[in-house]
């Protein structure tokens, strides 16, 4: 398993990490993802560890804490310093007014709950799951600095931030000498490449590692979606559990991308999903891709995305098929690439 440095930190992470949103199935939304319980979770964790994946991602809101509980049971007995655990807070957890956001009140409450459910005394990578526009950024970052200094958190990260959200946060951390976000957990896939417009150049400039969620666009790039064929009814999209809304995926571009994925899969002898994941591994700033699996077969298939590499020609063809016109101001900036050079993909 290849390891990469996580942003400007000294932490090395595997290029594939395992997401546990499929654990628990404690709410209607997450049942569409999966309902993996402790024994099956333990088997999946074992397969990951054997393959060199020791980075496990979860969140407090996944099945209202049940995913963290199941993960905690699955890793019980494993050597803690061999594991990299990532969890998140910010989104609504409970009904009281203060049970959401990135306030000191909410963060301190949630970190204690996550530690207890995971059965550990520290979190390796602690994410703000989204930006809180109501809480001063200074309050959020000062609280996270306290958690780092106390030893309860090793590194802090953002997730689903806009460019200015992330840049303002980094500037405040620099101003006060506080811990900075070393990673940004983002949605990025061949079905949606908006990450490249601003967040990727920002990450390159500020050395923020990309941790990619839903790299297969909630299963759309898994190989079951085909032009002029009925949509599969057993996946998360049909069951209402997709974190990627239908309106975000442009149908004509999507099926052009699937056609090209088919061609490249035939050339390489790999599956469509493996090709889509391998494409991501060749993009700038990507430190780790979160793969999920409802069962052992899905997990082992995803592991086949590493250990080989698409050719530059194959990457360029996939880029061309999945390209969409950028919104303003990015289309305007692209009129003069000498002033605004894009990331180097090849």
TrEMBL record:
Identify the residues that the record assigns to the NADP-dependent oxidoreductase domain, covering every copy.
16-322
Q: Gene3D superfamilies given for it?
A: NADP-dependent oxidoreductase domain
Q: Which InterPro entries match?
A: AKR, AKR_Detox_Biosynth, NAD(P)_OxRdtase_dom_sf, NADP_OxRdtase_dom
Q: Which residues form a coiled coil?
A: none
What's the name of the protein? Aldo/keto reductase
Origin organism of this chain?
Answer: Chitinophaga alhagiae
> What lineage does the source organism belong to?
Bacteria, Pseudomonadati, Bacteroidota, Chitinophagia, Chitinophagales
């Amino acid at each position: 398993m290849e390891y990469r440095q996580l942003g400007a930190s000294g932490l090395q992470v595997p290029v594939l990490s395992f997401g546990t949103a499929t654990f628990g199935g404690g709410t209607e939304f997450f049942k569409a993802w999966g309902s993996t319980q402790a024994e099956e979770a333990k088997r999946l964790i074992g397969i990951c560890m054997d393959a060199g994946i020791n980075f496990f991602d979860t969140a407090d809101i996944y099945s209202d804490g049940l995913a963290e509980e199941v993960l905690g049971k699955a890793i019980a007995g494993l050597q803690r310093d061999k594991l990299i655990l990532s969890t998140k807070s910010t989104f609504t957890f409970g009904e009281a007014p203060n049970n959401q956001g990135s306030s000191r009140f909410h963060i301190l409450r949630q970190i204690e709950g996550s530690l207890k459910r995971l059965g550990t005394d520290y979190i390796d990578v602690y994410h703000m799951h989204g930006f809180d526009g109501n809480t001063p950024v200074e309050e959020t970052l000062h609280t996270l600095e306290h958690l780092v200094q106390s030893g309860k958190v090793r590194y802090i990260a953002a997730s689903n931030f806009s460019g200015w959200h992330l840049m303002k946060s980094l500037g405040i951390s620099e101003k006060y000498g506080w811990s900075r976000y070393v990673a940004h957990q983002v949605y990025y896939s061949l079905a949606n490449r908006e990450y490249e417009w601003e967040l990727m150049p920002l990450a390159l400039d500020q050395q923020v590692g990309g941790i990619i969620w839903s790299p297969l666009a909630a299963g759309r790039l898994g190989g079951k979606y085909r032009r002029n064929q009925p949509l599969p009814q057993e996946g998360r999209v049909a069951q209402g559990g997709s974190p990627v809304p239908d309106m975000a995926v442009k149908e004509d571009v999507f099926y052009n991308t699937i056609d090209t994925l088919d061609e490249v899969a035939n050339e390489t002898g790999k599956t469509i999903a493996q090709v889509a994941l391998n494409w991501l591994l060749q993009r700038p700033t990507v430190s780790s891709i979160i793969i999920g699996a409802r069962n052992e077969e899905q997990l082992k298939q995803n592991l086949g995305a590493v250990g080989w590499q698409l050719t530059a020609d194959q990457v360029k063809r996939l880029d061309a098929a999945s390209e969409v016109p950028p919104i303003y101001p990015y289309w305007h900036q692209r009129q003069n690439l000498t002033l605004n050079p894009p990331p180097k993909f090849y």
